[in-house]
Amino acid sequence: MKISGSPPSLAILLAVGASLLSSCQALFKGKSSFETVTPPPSARSQSAEQAVDDSDIRVVSIPARPLGHLPTPVYPKAALDARVGKYVIFVQVVVGESGRVSDVTPSLGRVALPSPHAEAFLESVRETVLQWRLSPARMVYWQRVPGQDDRYLRTEAVAESMELKFTFEADGKVR
Q: What are phi and psi of 37, to 5 degrees?
């Protein structure tokens, strides 16, 4: 079987999910949205196919994919009452080999603006993202056979890390 092209990236799937979710109002009339900041390896400029030791083996990287609805975080009530307004937070999300989100931490590469409500926004993101269910990222190994179709060898589930940007809008608009 010959494989061409690469599968849709998690970035594309998350963007579609985010646009669908943007029409749903969060509690207390605050809203939030999210987008992938660092696309998974297969979505970057390099090819999803990688040669392994220049041998006749090739590896196709398939990113983690959402399984159903991915809820967005709720705008924290205390922050909404304080009229904090728009708040942007970047987090690093680790999706384990089972497809469950195993870790959500503030991004070290992008610091959120200081706010007395920063921890409430982070906790809202953490509580929501830990509920997400995804199919795990996978590495599919193929053997090139001259004059024949590629031969499937194996598939491995792998952990994947990605950076996500969450934008909370207190006025009900999502940009």
A: -95, -50
The predicted-structure confidence for 63-87, as pLDDT tens digits, reads as follows 999 999 999 898 998 888 888 888 9
Q: Which of 147, 156, 106 is nearest to 129 (CA)?
A: 106
* CATH-assigned architecture of domain 10-169: 2-Layer Sandwich (3.30)
The backbone region for 5, taken as left when phi is positive above 0, alpha when psi lies in -120 to 50, beta otherwise, is left
Report yes or no: 169 and 30 within 8 Å, Cβ to Cβ. Answer: yes
How distant is the alpha carbon of residue 98 from its chain centre?
15
Please identify which residue in the block is written with the tokens 């997400």. 132
Domain ranges of the chain: 10-169
Q: Burial level of 124, CB count in 10 A (0-12/13-18/19+)?
A: buried
Q: What string of DSSP letters covers 80-124?
A: HHTT---EEEEEEEEE-TTSBEEEEEE-SSSPPPP-TTHHHHHHH
What does pTM read for this prediction? 0.66
The answer to whether residue 43 scores a pLDDT higher than 80 is no
Three-state SS for 27?
helix
